[in-house]
Specification:
10 helices; elongated; mainly alpha
């Protein structure tokens, strides 16, 4: 069995610029699967439909992936890895300033859910379709990204006593807020990405008790 070659951004570690988004790093088969899963859902998508989306025969598809489940977990692992790599790069860009690190982590989540909408949608809705072993691998990646955000809140509290002591709960609330952006953001909408980031960072600072700090 020979898998597609993963895009360079996904396999080479942290992006050189976590704010910049080009084409998806997904290889062709997984790009086709992403579209099918986003439109029809995992359960309603057949192997034949996945092969058609990839412009392959069914035997040709099986040459790369052994099952529909393997296609889904490969897709989700790349999505979560890109998100995590961008989060790490954003965190590093904040230097030693805890609020700069917090702002960058939130901004990275926001931009991912603006510019990787289909990926974010499938990743959030189709975790349930993974078998336990595969789900645990993807959840571990998601949880690592979540821990980055929680850690920035804990670090900010060491400097600013107004910051909430409930870092885990606050991180989950912020993640939910950022994920929600994928459901309504449009490139031709009334607000630019930078305007959305500025507005939502205000919400985020207020949620953790850091409004007006820094």
């Amino acid at each position: 069995m020979s898998h597609d070659v993963i895009g360079q951004d996904a396999s080479a570690g942290q992006p050189t610029d976590w704010r910049s988004y080009g084409p998806s790093p997904l290889p062709k088969i997984l790009r086709g699967a992403l579209g099918a899963f986003a439109e029809h859902g995992y359960q309603a998508t057949s192997i034949r439909e996945l092969a058609t989306a990839a412009e392959l025969s069914v035997p040709g598809l099986y040459h790369h992936y052994q099952s529909k489940q393997e296609i889904l977990v490969s897709l989700l692992e790349i999505v979560y890895t890109e998100l995590l790599d961008r989060s790490r790069a954003a965190l590093a860009s904040g230097g030693d300033d805890p609020l700069a690190r917090f702002d960058a982590s939130v901004e990275s989540l926001l931009r991912f859910h603006m510019f990787r909408r289909a990926e974010a949608f499938v990743a959030s809705t189709e975790l349930r379709s993974l078998i336990p072993e595969n789900r645990s691998r993807c959840v571990a990646l998601r949880d690592e990204q979540q821990e980055i955000l929680a850690t920035t809140i804990c670090d900010a509290r060491k400097v600013y006593d107004t910051v909430t002591e409930h870092a885990g709960d606050a991180a989950r609330a912020l993640s939910t807020m950022c994920v929600g952006v994928a459901t309504w953001y449009r490139e031709d909408g009334p607000l630019s990405p930078d305007e959305i980031v500025k507005r939502y960072l205000g919400f985020a600072r207020g949620l953790i008790g850091a409004a007006g700090q820094g």
